[in-house]
UniProtKB/TrEMBL annotation, chain A:
Annotated source species: Micromonospora matsumotoense
Residue ranges occupied by any ABC transporter domain in the UniProt entry: 22-271
Comp. bias regions, Basic and acidic residues: 367-378
Name by which UniProt lists this protein: Peptide/nickel transport system ATP-binding protein
UniProt lineage: Bacteria, Bacillati, Actinomycetota, Actinomycetes, Micromonosporales
Any Pfam family: oligo_HPY
TrEMBL record, chain B:
Domain ABC transmembrane type-1, first and last residues per copy: 95-304
Lineage: Bacteria, Bacillati, Actinomycetota, Actinomycetes, Micromonosporales
Topology of this chain in the membrane: Multi-pass membrane protein
Short name of one Pfam family: BPD_transp_1
This protein's UniProt keywords: Cell membrane, Membrane, Transmembrane, Transmembrane helix, Transport
InterPro entries: BPD_transp_1_N (IPR045621), MetI-like (IPR000515), MetI-like_sf (IPR035906)
Protein name (database record): Peptide/nickel transport system permease protein
Transmembrane segments: 101-122, 143-163, 175-196, 231-261, 281-304
Cellular component annotations (GO), alphabetically ordered: plasma membrane
Amino acid sequence: MSAPVVPSPRAGGEPPGGEPVLAIDDLTVTLGTRNGPARAVAGVDWSVAPGRTLALVGESGSGKSMTVLAATGLAPRSATVTGRVRLLGRELTTMSETDRRRWRGRHVGFVFQDPMTTLNPVLTVGRQVTEACEEHLGMSRRQARSRAVELLDLVGIPAPERRVDAHPHQFSGGMRQRVVIAMALACEPELLIADEPTTALDVTTQAQIVELVADLRRRLGTAVVWITHDLGVVAGIADTVAVMYGGRIVEQGPVDAVFAAPGHPYTRALLAARPRPGAAGEELAAIPGAPPSPLDLPAGCAFWPRCPVRGDARCAHELPPLVPIAPGHRVRTFYPTTADGGATADPTTADGGATADPTTADGGATAEDRHQLRPEDR
Amino acid sequence: MGRFVLRRLLQSVVVLLGVTLVVFLLLQLVPGDPVRVALGTRFDQQTYDALRERSGLDRPLVVQYLSYVGHALTGDLGVSFRSGQPVTSIVLERLPATGSLSVTAVLFALLVAFPLGVLSAMRSGSFVDHAARVFSQFGVSVPDFWMGIMGILLFAGVLGWLPPSGYVALTDDPAGWASHVALPAAAVGLVTASILTRFIRSSVLEVLAEDYVRTAEAKGLRRRVVIVRHVLRNALIPVVTVVAVQLASLVGGVIVIEVLFAWPGVGRLTYDAVQARDYPVLQGAVLFVATLFLLMNLLVDVLYARLDPRITLR
């Protein structure tokens, strides 16, 4: 991992920001199941800018993976997808299947959860890493092979000239995930989608993979969508975070603001459930109950049955809108948490601006927490 | 790999010894005196005793068995009670007929089962899938001899396109061979095709659900590349076993069809040997089929190692 072997016009060039790489708007995914339609994702919108990292956070079944799969045309055949998805300014939902396939393969790289099953056992890793380059960049077999050696070196695989012809079963889990990352970056995509890439790995390897992706993002200027249920990872790498519950975004904002002053009771509960270094030996907080089934979602707020705030009948029957509580920070609840930790009334009636300002908020997270989040910001 | 093959061949010899022992003992249990049957109307006590002594049947069982095995190791499987011909050459003579029928049947089966199985897996739940399932249900339910009889009635009787039975060697007259092999091969192949269609379908379905297929799709590869390079490469590995075992069992097992179509193969030979109590020929035929099974299994193992890099032969 020494020399920048992947030349990229974006590397270290223009500052991050600007036109979004991927913007999804009002995305809804309904899966046809044996027991009727299941609404996996409902009215989700977010975007990610070049060189930025968006974390999609939520429990299993919250719709976070389905959101990106559907957006990029990888949803299962039984799924009905509506909404708008723009990848590098081009609308994906109205594209032909063939165009979408090409556009996705050329501009988006995917890292999936389990490196043990993501790779094809009968093909050499080199072939798998750069077969997309043959398809999308018109490389010859030989060019693709030497490109694979470069990429394996880039992701820190020792002796890449030798390892390029090895098969996946000859690699450890962590090394396989590096191979998958090399594969995702093969066509120099503008966007990297990492779907719980560390979940199947042991803790020390997890840290290495997180560090590797963060480092590659800095060097290559790739935008990253990181799907995870691990808030600790989010704090370390993301710029913005979107928390999903029951197929909807319940809170979205800059990572500092969300961690410092979580506005949604669910986000607060998630943050409280994290193990903390100072609290060894104490029992971890848990959220009672289970997430709702996408087959049978409540009419109102999906979190209401488990909510510690427990508002009124309105929560049970009316879907709260996603409302801003600070610049760029939106929350879907009638009872956003205020800076002092309590819950205010409806933000549309209360003077929410001042109370929810994350810069003055102190109740949401401890100083230790925030130090842990982004040391470079302190 | 060379050492693997060598060791497996040595193991095969042990297995074959077991096969000869079982067959030898089984034949002792079969009622009927082979020498008496062989003589038929020419029977008189003197000839009977002479033939019995000449074929060694008057000696103790252990001696008979050991001498059989001893000769078998040198390729001598004894002589037929019936014709006096060496068994080895009798069995080998039947090989082209049986081999060409079995291979044609398996090729026919693959030609049907491969596209049908892959297509019905790729479009699972579609019309093609349902049609394939009805076909394979039909194929495994209907006995091959009935298919053969229907085939004869339709193509030889009503339409008159094909000869109803008989055999022409492939080397003598390829066109004549083809017209004669068509019906028996189709009758046998249809059953094999049904088994293979089911097997290929479920194998492909299983691989289609693998994560690495989603990975290949995420890369934006063409559908054809995803199917051929990622799905079929993996799905067809277990199919190799089924095809090889089917082929081996056809060589020894198309008895009814060979009798029905007057096809002079190993199956027919086995049938005739049983009828005539021609024990040396029967033993030879069984030994031949067992050897073929062992070789096929060895071939499958070697092929597996070539197809799946996770397997190494040691």
